[in-house]
Amino acid sequence: MECRAGAIWDEGYLAYDFGDHPMSPVRLDLTVRLARELGVLERLQVSPPRAAGTEQLLTVHDAAYLDAVRAASDDPSYQGFGLGTDDDPVFPGMYDASALIAGGSAQAAHLVWGGEVEHAVNIAGGLHHAMRGHAAGFCIFNDAVLAITELLAAGAERVAYVDIDVHHGDGVQAAFYDDPRVLTVSLHQDPRTLFPGTGLPGDVGRGDAEGTAVNVALPPGTTDAGWLRAFDAVVPGAVRAFRPEVLVSQCGCDTHHEDPLANLQLTVDGQRAAIARMHALAHDVAGGKWLAFGGGGYGVLRCVPRTWTHLLAEATGAAVAADAAVPPGWTSYLRGRGVTGALPDRMGEGPLAEVVPWVPGGEGWLDGAIGATRRAVFPLLGLDPDDPRD
């Protein structure tokens, strides 16, 4: 099914650069180069980002924090508000680079809400750890929160946010924990084993928003089949019950088995399947309105470019086959830059394992985690936690 899809992209995004750091902008550059080589980029309406202005950013961040980011942009010794740490070292132009990404995500939101496109992708976005008053986890401004805030201001009454990054989407959950208009769903490695240490099944929202935070805490070592079983058992039911007008997805790919910062074991094929599920869900429950961001992902050569190229292609409705060859031009570019290690030759990694549906009473950490989430939040959404059809 062909879809009208847009992407927000400009090489200005590459200025979001912490230096010698896992969050390397090369992952964005290599994704766009791969998508261009495969003909994906030409099927997208590509727009350059516009930086978020101060008034926009003040809807999601404190004025004192914005001042701190400005100060850090000019002072390499700056420390405070989560800045100047190993996770979030300061760099020249930090404010402008961060505002450009945030503005790009807000722009994507308006393209979708205004009907100019059905789906919009900002691969530089998904900086989901930034809090209202401080930086965290490689994230300076929370573009996902800004995009959702702009959707609400534009008239959306219910927005669903699904986060598949290996780390809990804590900044987005925190921003909307009391807001019944926003459903936040996060599938992540168990917080007892990984940063940021939040996102347990009992975190379900507060007050009138009780039932609008959904957290699936997956055991280290979870593979494609187990991860997709968890997704299928929780996400479609929760999102359908919420009846959103827009689906927002954070598509971090640090769940990959080669990712250096976490311990899940997904393949590019599993991640591709997850993205396809979210695309289908957007058409099923949100009239096709789908806004997708990048996020984490630190396998900058073998994982991120392939997975996010699949994301861009999926948004167009013309998926790239998993067995498609990686274009020789892309490989030659890397070799020309001195890369000597093994590079992928196909857009996937092999056959996707069979996904066995979840049933109540399953044994083991994974099925126990699925059951814990369903018991905690499904009754609050009017669903039966023990009925696999919900």
Automatic annotation (TrEMBL):
InterPro entries with a match to the protein in the record: AcuC (IPR003085), HDACs (IPR000286), His_deacetylse_dom (IPR023801), His_deacetylse_dom_sf (IPR037138), Ureohydrolase_dom_sf (IPR023696)
Stretches assigned to the Histone deacetylase domain: 21-313
Keywords linked to the UniProt accession: Acetoin catabolism
Domain of life per record: Bacteria
One Pfam family per UniProt: Hist_deacetyl
GO MF annotation list: histone deacetylase activity
Pathway annotation from the record: Ketone degradation; acetoin degradation
GO biological process: acetoin catabolic process; epigenetic regulation of gene expression
Family: Belongs to the histone deacetylase family.
Name under which the protein is recorded: Acetoin utilization protein AcuC
Species of provenance: Jatrophihabitans endophyticus
